Known about the structure:
Helix content: 40-55%
Shape: globular
Structural class: alpha/beta
Radius of gyration: 16 Å
Order of helices and strands: EHEHEHEHEHEHEHEHH
Amino acid sequence: xxxxxxxxxxxxxxxxxxxxxxxxxxxxxxxxxxxxxxxxxxxxxxxxxxxxxxxxxxxxxxxxxxxxxxxxxxxxxxxxxxxxxxxxxxxxxxxxxxxxxxxxxxxxxxxxxxxxxxxxxxxxxxxxxxxxxxxxxxxxxxxxxxxxxxxxxxxxxxxxxxxxxxxxxxxxxxxxxxxxxxxxxxxxxxxxxxxxxxxxxxxxxxxxxxxxx
Length: 213
């Protein structure tokens, strides 16, 4: 994965653009705009994206299990599905909500696979770096109970300075070119942008809200 902009091309079942065909075209549009990589959810979407672009892919599978808080690639089953599909990087929930033994197991068992830790606090990022993750992303800041009052740029800055091995990726509500530029200037390896590019219903709402003020 080169340094630069990674575009998250995802649409869940309840969203208007939920379609592997559409996500493939979203990825193509991102490629034409200069993206260096794609983040995608589900094997079907990843297959279609591969038919459209040859960019590196950060693959995830969002799955809810009863009694389990993590939903981003939460078990070995999802990890193996992504490995079998041949994604470049597999992202998993690496917050304190996830069992550390699971994180250790996948890193040990699949040594030829690159993994990204989706975290929500500085402490979680440092833990992921020490465990041996190749990438640490600030993906879940604000989405976990322990990160409700966490400021993303503060966490990003500390992780960039203190991670010894992992490349730090800025992700999670980096919604403007200015914020993305700031993250890179701070030393982030790459920036993942999703909703601000690939979710038109959310983009539309920002304009509507602004007009209502």
